[in-house]
Amino acid sequence: MRRLIAGGAVLLAALGAVPLAAQPVPVVFVHGNGDHAGLWDTMRWRFESQGYPADRLFALSLPHPVASSTVRGGEANRSTPAEQAAALAAFVDAVRARTGAPRVALVGSSRGGLTIRRFVRDVGGARVSHVVTCGTPNHGVFAQAGLQPESEFNGAGPYLRALNAEREVEPGVATLAIRSDGNDKYAQPDGAAMGMRGVATGVDARGPSLAGAEEVVLPGADHREVAFSAGAFRAVYAFLTGRPPADTAIVPQARVVLDGLVSGEAAGAPTNLPLAGARVTVHAVDAATGARVGAPVHRRQVDARGRWGPFRAVGGQPYEFEVEAPDGRVVLHLYRPGFPRSTDEVTLRVPAAPPPVRGDSVRVLLVRPRGYLGAGRDTVEVDGQPAAGIPPGIPTVDRVTAWVGGGAPRSVALRVNAERLVVRTHPGDPRRVVVAEVQHD
Questions:
Q1: For the whole model, what pTM was predicted?
Q2: CATH class of the structural domain 3-241
Q3: Which of these, 99, 107, 252, 427, could form a disulfide with 132 (CB 3.0-4.6 Å)?
């Protein structure tokens, strides 16, 4: 086993510049607990920018993305490892049929890596050439036999003990594990980051490692950055292609087409199921004020497939995605910065209920889906002032709530490091949910 440190620098130095194969291996990206396919957009864009064919890059949204409390399942809108592996198997077979490729590469974030390992071990090892796990709790987020023993995330429980028995890497499948050196909230010796301060977890930063796999350690990376950051791309690309990428920049496209899924929530958790009947209106907005510019640029009522596009966008133009739930109880206003490239995975998740009320203030939610927010590590501001609600220490939150005056509609400027996004509030209508989602590439 080669041990590769500092973002894969050793690996990259050892590999020469080798041309891509005429038909490179199809890559399937698998999201983590509660997530969706759209989180892989920046990874896919980087692959495309290096010449990897877009029609060989796939990301799936598993229908019930949140794990059951036990591997036996039986909980509404929750999934077991077996159910996840079966859904992945169907998707892999569809990709193989579409591309004609006998084998695919699988890249998984967090729980997605466990889903991949279960699939490869029990179902489809012969269909897989490469496996990459990114921040995957391969030995649990805790390893305590008496603590939630039937959870798939307990390294001392029967599920992970069985998955890791005999071998942790399947013969004939090249495997890479990417992890942090200590900033991953789910690879900590103390349970504080999971609300269990003072409880020894039985795991540490090496928890996402795999015996027999190559390894890349990304210094300072948080639980999501080990999957979605530029450093993660560099390591994944080199591992799959046998050559380092020329750089990690996302090259803008001249023609940008967007599409994606409208989904919602059920039984207190997000789904990746179609929210048929929702109404989507897309507005171009002014980057400086968040105000709408001209008439809506796209409208659609969502059909049974849950798709809201396609929509031909202007590259670099920020947009507001207004989504009204089928019953009209909630209206989502999701603000996104400009899209540099096309994607068919712009996921619009509508909350099940309106936002909470706090006096005469209205709520603005700032979300960083591809990374966490670390006090002292990241600059997070609301109207030029430091955002509240970011705990010190290991980055553990991916969102902050800002309460702003609700007397009249107003612009709210939000900043995460170099990214800036301005939104508009909608006071006077309690159905309105305003969310700013930064790209964080």
A1: 0.95
A2: alpha beta
A3: 107
